[in-house]
Amino acid sequence: MRLRILLLLVLLAGCGISPTGVQDGGEPGSGFQPSMRLYFVSGQRLKAATRPMPWPSLKETLNLLVDGPSRQEQQLGLGTELESWIGTLGKVTSDDAKVRIAVEAPTSSAAPMPVPRETIAAQRDRLLWLGQLTCTAAAALAAQSNIDPDAVRVEVRRERENFGSFRCSEFPRAAE
User: Fold this and answer.
1) Mutual orientation of helices 58-67 and 128-145 as an angle, nearest 10°?
2) What's the rounded Cα separation, in Å, for the pair 176 and 150?
3) Are 50 and 36 in contact (CB under 8 A)?
4) Which of 21, 133, 145, 165 has its CA 20 to 30 A from that of 125?
């Protein structure tokens, strides 16, 4: 008898949660959406801009980088240093974990002078245009090959000038 009374009291007490109306759960999950990362300049650091789109080829990705940040990305404070260092992209090739990028000098009369290798080594943190190419190419190849972006080495050449081979981690990046 006591058990029945106890059971009746528990049922009358309820669970303590009051009823609510229908709640909106938001948009349904969409699963994995391919996107690409382009690296632009924010202050004195590189910052990734993610664009939701299917992965284009490596050269197409780099061409989007050369085109510069979108209006929305500019409003977020992103810029580029590429226009003062390169005119157009030349040949872009890749294999396992290496990308080779050939660039042409800008056609303006204020084309940059050659950069000595010692300057590149000592001032890498100031040559953000080189980091923009390196990090964007590394991210693109890594996404297509399912490897770590820091495993990718990127070699950049401008006409007869070989700037060297770099990893993205060698350049200053903003927190993401």
Assistant:
1) 150
2) 16
3) yes
4) 145
Q: Which pLDDT score is estimated for 133?
A: 95
The stretches in the chain having pLDDT less than 70 are: 1-34, 108-126, 176
Specify whether the CB–CB gap between 46 and 173 falls below 8 A. Answer: yes
Residue 148 confidence (pLDDT): 92
Which residues lie closer than 8 Å to 141 by C-beta, 6 or more apart? 58, 94, 97, 99, 147, 149, 152
Task: Give the tens place of pLDDT for each residue, 103-115.
Answer: 988 776 555 555 6
Task: List, in order, residues 6 or more apart from 174 with CB less than 8 Å away.
Answer: 42, 43, 45, 46, 47
Cα–Cα distance measured from residue 49 to residue 71, given in angstroms and rounded to the nearest whole number: 12
User: Taking a C-beta distance cutoff of 8 angstroms, is the pair 108, 85 a contact?
Assistant: no
Give how far Cα 74 sits from Cα of 20, 66, 70, 139, Å. 44, 14, 6, 21
